[in-house]
Amino acid sequence: MKAVIVSRIDNAEALAFARSIRATLSEASCPAEFDHDTAIAVGESGPRLAETDADIVIVIGGDGTILRTIQQLGSPVPVLGINWGEVGFLADLETADALPFLRNLVHGFTVEERMRISLAKDGVPLGTALNEALIVTTRPAKMLRFSIIIDGVVAEQFRADGLLVSTPTGSTAYAMSAGGPIVDPRIQGFLLVPLAPYMLSSRPHLISEGRRLEIRLESAKPAKLVLDGQQTIDLGTSSQIHIQRSPVPAQFVDVKRNFFEKVDKKLRNL
Ligand SMILES: NC(=O)c1ccc[n+]([C@@H]2O[C@H](COP(=O)([O-])OP(=O)(O)OC[C@H]3O[C@@H](n4cnc5c(N)ncnc54)[C@H](O)[C@@H]3O)[C@@H](O)[C@H]2O)c1
Ligand SMILES: Nc1ncnc2c1ncn2[C@@H]1O[C@H](COP(=O)(O)OP(=O)(O)OP(=O)(O)O)[C@@H](O)[C@H]1O
């Protein structure tokens, strides 16, 4: 088994912990290297995540570092998050448990898959998201006009600051703050949550991932697409965005942590 280690690069203690993880894995006969950004931060060199042939990616950081890592991976590689962040909801291991867990990792592990969404504009791929795709007005305090088309039928039309198309994984993130439900990650679906809709009756929708989903922007106002808070794409005005389940799910090392216990522990006292 071979590991690549990704650390947040803005925190010296996290980088020092990354070194101790590399040493622990080497002692357990598991070759481990730093990814490009982490290596540069400690004066070394390392592979870009898009080119890694590692069997596991160990991430030391919070959710943003995990989300960015998954976006940068080429083919799917199981991710093990060690929490060195403010919340670290996607990081299933706390630092105190990390080294003992890693020593046992070499004996094998199971993988949990999480659906991602893929987006395209007029047939041109825009990217994928593990948490959500946010379509939002470029100009603050201006509204966009949305039509949500499901299986070719206009399901809802409204004006709003923006619209979140979230996965079940992202239902505990921005979508939660915007009033959406917590969605069991075993459910395969799209969670649509409008941002400040100018309509009394607009509600979040959870729809099956098997549906054909299209979002039409119908006001001549500029909009942006933001994927997992990491990647921003200009949509210009009046776009037609097609959304489907990505054929490539994200993979996490299953540390047997209960999702609902994590919600209770990590999100009740933010
Ligand atoms: N008002 C909000 O709640 C809000 C606003 C912007 C972005 N976000 C979320 O932040 C994510 C990007 O994370 P970041 O750390 O780079 O941004 P960030 O540093 O602005 O932090 C956003 C917060 O959301 C938490 N978070 C991220 N993904 C989560 C998940 N799946 N479940 C529970 N909490 C989660 C992070 O721990 C962090 O505390 C975006 O995908 C979006 O979901 C939330
Ligand atoms: N390789 C990198 N390139 C650019 N910025 C990075 C990199 N690694 C980490 N960062 C920055 O470090 C900080 C850590 O983000 P991260 O989301 O991991 O932790 P957090 O926000 O403290 O925790 P949480 O997201 O769990 O609340 C962010 O400001 C992130 O942009």
Ligand types: nicotinamide-adenine-dinucleotide, adenosine-5'-triphosphate
> DSSP helix count?
6
Strand order of the largest sheet: 8-7-18-15-10-11
Structural category is: alpha+beta
Shape: elongated
Please give the share of residues in helix: 10-25%
Low-confidence stretches: none
Relevant CATH superfamily of the largest domain: Probable inorganic polyphosphate/atp-NAD kinase, domain 1
Overall structural domain count:
2
Task: Give the terminus-to-terminus CA distance.
Answer: 37 Å
Biggest sheet features: 6 strands, antiparallel
Order of helices and strands: EHEHEHEEHEEEEEEEHEEEEEEEH
CATH T-level topology of the largest domain: Rossmann fold
Main location: cytoplasm
Function: Involved in the regulation of the intracellular balance of NAD and NADP, and is a key enzyme in the biosynthesis of NADP. Catalyzes specifically the phosphorylation on 2'-hydroxyl of the adenosine moiety of NAD to yield NADP.
Protein name: NAD kinase
Catalytic activity: NAD(+) + ATP = ADP + NADP(+) + H(+)
Summarize the structure.
The protein is of the alpha+beta class and 270 residues long.
Give your account of this protein's structure.
The structure is a single chain. The chain is 21% helix and 37% strand. It is of the alpha+beta class and 270 residues long. The protein folds into two domains: 3-114 and 249-268, Rossmann fold (3-Layer(aba) Sandwich); 117-245, Tumour Suppressor Smad4. The strands form four sheets. The protein has a six-stranded antiparallel β-sheet, with no helix packed on it. Helix 3 (63-72) links the parallel strand 3 and strand 4. The chain is elongated, with a radius of gyration of 20 Å. Bound molecules: nicotinamide-adenine-dinucleotide (NAD) and adenosine-5'-triphosphate (ATP). The site of adenosine-5'-triphosphate has 13 residues, from helix 3.
